[in-house]
Every structure is written in structure tokens, then in C-alpha cells.
Amino acid sequence: MRDLKIPEQRHPEKAKRPDNPQPKKPAWIRVKAPVGQGYQETRKIMREHKLVTVCEEAGCPNVGECWNQGHATMMIMGEVCTRACTFCNIATGKPPEDLDVFEPGRVADAVKKLGQNHVVVPSVDRDDIDDGGAAHFAQTIRAIRKQSPSTTIEILTPDFIRCAPEALEEVVAAKPDVFNHNLETVPGLYPEVRPGARYFHSLRLLQRVKELDPTMFTKSGIMVGLGEDRQAVHQVMDDMRAANVDFITIGQYLQPTLKHHRVDRFVTPEEFASYEKAAKGKGFLMVSATPLTRSSYHAGDDFAKMQKARQAAQG
């Protein structure tokens, strides 16, 4: 029986990799330890509902701030991912169990109990399932809608690379308010950072969402500090806009363990501000580019701003 708290068992494919020393974090990337009553209450609800959160599994630096406000990001389809991206701290391997048919209901119960106005629902990759978990996503969206009809729903999906086109169609038909799929990095780094994925497949997935439902907001994000250059980041922006992506997030990559991909450098706040300015100039409705930006960080506030931006653009 694997103990996912032990790094060697959590990431067996990385156990024999050489250590990548972690550079000291600059002042702008440091955050306070997670404390506070709100944090404890959110944690209690997650445990009571037996839910996995990407906040904990991915080691998000914003967990203290978000959980104090009741903004937990519940990760569906288990806690073991079938991919082995070199940047990610989520446990990898063959998932030990089938999908939990009661999970959508538990997620919906937690959203209602937390009183979330906007919820982000990511998942692990499940290449072991024919539809990649598409039906499970749809069921989760419907369950949340039933219990919390006023809550806006943002999903963060896998790439469904091994699935029939109907898988994506089923997810879009469930009508999430925001469809997010992260490109994660520039195409030149895919072989070493995201080896199980294909850049242009992910880009096409986002474009296909807009073709299926032109009114649906689409969102994608990348990390910087992995070894990319500025020109490559601008090319990703252009590619996203060509696919009609509405919202781009850009955040600093943080190395989870010595066995993960190294941090090439810490991008300065000034560089992030420059990326934000460039992205806005390229026509994104919404841009979040800061060292601590993550897909679900301030997602509710950003969604409201994105709605207003679309309304203003439509006159």
C-alpha cells in the first residue's frame, strides 16, 4: 500500500532523478503560514466530506489566504494522476480505484456549506478511463447547480487527449461558467516539463470549446521561471488569442521537491507587470500576472471583472 505522504512513493517515477537544488526564494514570493479560524473551518469541511484539494496536493502558496475566506479548490477524480509532469506535486501512477460516484454530491454539499459564490473544480488526469472523466465533470457541475444555483462554476480540465470528441462535448454541454485548461509552459519545454501532453492539442481543445459554445468564457495559464524566454511567452499569448481564449494567468513556478524540475530563475514583479501589460494589449478580457498567481487565486473576483469587460466590449 502506497503512502502518498512519502515523496518516493508519491512520485515513484522521480525517485531516481538527480536532485535539483532549490534557490532561496526572494522576498516577493514568501507567504505567511496558514493559520486562522477560517482556515481551520475550511479544513474541517474538507475532511468531513472526504475531499481532496489541489491547494494541499499541489502545495499552493496561497492556501492560507484562500482557506481563511472559505475558498477551497476541490480536486475531483481521486488523488493519483496518470501523468508525470516534472513540475507537479500531485501523486502520480495508476489510480488505485474507480471514480467515486458519490463525489459530485459531496463536492456540491461542501460548496453549499462554505457558501462559495464562485467555485473552481480541477481534477487529476485519468487516462485510465475511456472518457477521461468527462461524465464525472458534467455530473459535478450539475450537482453544484442543483444545490447552489447562484454559484458560478469554473472547471480546470485535463486535455482528454486519448478520448473521442464527445468527451469534451459532454463537459461543455453541462454549461460551466468558465472552461479552464492550462497550457502550463511554452511549447519548447513540453518534452521535459509536460511530456505526456501536446501543446497544440491543448490549444485546439480551448479553441474547440469556443466553437461548441461561443458564449462560454475560456481560460488558460502558464508558469514562468522554468527556462522559457520572453519571446516564447509572447508567442503563447498570441496562440491563446488565436484560439479565442478570454483569460490568461501567469505565475511563478515553485519547485515542490528536489526531484522536481528546477527553478531556472525567479521572475521579478516588474517583469510580471510587463507581461500583464502585453497581454492586455493583445486583447485578453482578463489578465492575472503576478508571482503568486495561480488558476484559482482570486478566481471569483476575476470572473466578475471578466464579465464586466465583456459587457463593456459589447457596448
Task: Give a description of the structure.
Helix 10 links the parallel strand 8 and strand 9. The protein starts with 6 loop residues before the first helix and ends with a helix. It has helices spanning 7-10, 37-48, 54-57, 63-68, 103-114, 134-147, 165-173, 190-193, 199-212, 230-242, 269-281, 299-313; strands spanning 52-53, 74-75, 80-81, 91-92, 118-122, 152-156, 178-180, 217-224, 247-252, 286-289. The chain is globular, with a radius of gyration of 18 Å. Strands 5-6-7-8-9-10 form a 6-stranded parallel β-sheet, sandwiched between helices. The mean pLDDT is 91. The protein has 315 residues and is of the alpha/beta class.
Helices, strands, pairings?
Elements: H1 7-10, H2 37-48, E1 52-53, H3 54-57, H4 63-68, E2 74-75, E3 80-81, E4 91-92, H5 103-114, E5 118-122, H6 134-147, E6 152-156, H7 165-173, E7 178-180, H8 190-193, H9 199-212, E8 217-224, H10 230-242, E9 247-252, H11 269-281, E10 286-289, H12 299-313
Parallel strand pairs: 3-4, 5-6, 6-7, 7-8, 8-9, 9-10
Antiparallel strand pairs: 1-2
